[in-house]
């Protein structure tokens, strides 16, 4: 399987073989039908299956061969480790991905604090003109700072995703795979336990859709915030309508509910993660995963706080913290768990 992790290779091969013999979990998610349909297990197949997995853990709690059975199956943890290895191998530079996943909270906090201090110092050199946030930091300065911070990590992410697609032999995208991917992403079908009953992520004996709903809130909240920024850009450059915008304008109607959804979704994900067994995931990177969730929460929470503080003396400090969090999020995107959405989408498109 994966040449650089021989112990993980052997363990994954052993567990896949037992699962293929049992086949009890065939209807749980996309992983098992594709595992059972494989003529042979290869490194590319293992990588593909790992990125299809949502770590719902239903298969572990239903498995008759999980501990204390002598077979000692823990497929969610093996797939999580394979998935983590995939992200780290394809990231450039790889070392930065490893550092974040090992020390995510410290790295994210340091970057937010450093960038926030930089933006606060810049805000002391207030532009001669400008309204709203642009009274503290000129629009052109924001564009000059954030355009590279967004585009360069995006290019790095595209490179790693291309490398991953080649590894799994993605091939030609079909209309059927597009429909399947759209349905799976929109409904979070693979977090439904196979029968819309939910998964066992936080507690083995309890089925719940809590994680599914938290993921949906996070996804749609993030997309609404991104849409708000995109619409504001079009309004600024295409219509000459410059910020600040009133509440009933499209950027606010998208951004405020999106920020609330993002706060609720990431807050719920952090709470569920605290309740769940870390040994059923990639335990070594638990801190990095939690750091990513908290980073997204910080971005949304500071954005809402900044909007609420409009016109008050708290704006300069809140603006610096919010911009620092957004900048840190952009810079770290190729190295955080943000990549899982892109890799999982690619895995769904490449379904065999």
UniProtKB/TrEMBL annotation:
InterPro entries linked to this entry: Citrate_utilization_prot_B (IPR012830), NarG-like_sf (IPR036197)
Superkingdom of this protein's organism: Bacteria
GTP-binding as UniProt keyword: no
Regions crossing the membrane: 99-121, 133-159, 217-239, 254-274, 286-308, 314-335
Keyword 4Fe-4S: no
Keywords: Membrane, Transmembrane, Transmembrane helix
Name of the protein described by the UniProt record: Citrate/tricarballylate utilization protein
Organism in which the protein naturally occurs: Roseinatronobacter thiooxidans
